[in-house]
Request: fold
Amino acid sequence: MMRCVLFDFFGTLVEYSASRTDQGYATSHRLLVEAGARLDYAAFLEVWSDEAVRFEDAAEASRREFSMPELVEAFLRRIDVASDAALVERFTRSYLGEWNKGVRYHDGLPKLLGRLRDGFTLGIVTNTHDPDLVPNHLADMGVRDHFDCLVTSVEFGRRKPDPAIFHEALAALGVPAAETLYVGDSHTADYLGARAAGIPCWLIDPRGDAPVPAADRLASLFEIERRVRVGDFPRRPPMLGDPC
Reply:
């Protein structure tokens, strides 16, 4: 019996652009110039993107999550700008504010979550570099109270697909993996991560690109409701030690 539905956030509950350039970061660049940076706008984006990729690659290899202040401090050292806590905080807020221009909310999401909450405990397990980013979006959408658990990688310290971050959510909610469903959009972080934790998973994959069984694929987030109404849940993945 399925009792709980856990969601990824970015790419699942909201659409977003992962780009570090397309949204436009003029305000963040101006802040750097005022702090003494000698980079034009194009150079700023190039160096920032390169430093962010370096951090992402290290995090993917270690599964240790990094925070925005850690990245910002390293970036400021690289461009030879003297930093203090106030500058790091100002740049972090400025950058995230501009990055957020690429986040788009789904029409009808609050109603969908409200209906799902009538039958299931809801939670979120998401990778993010800022502890306030996801809660603020949930509040803006008016759905924060729909979720009984929010586990972010930056607060937990480990990122998906590490099974430990999924186990953290299960422990917080007091539900077993076999009675939980995870919904995400990344084959590696979400699908493989959840299944490594013993949690059945549906992957939002409208083009059918990911190597998952058809029964584990969703055409859209809003397909969930139809499938849960008829009890069309994926089977629990085998766990280490399960009988063959």
Q: What stands out?
A: The radius of gyration is 19 Å. Residues 26-102 form one domain.
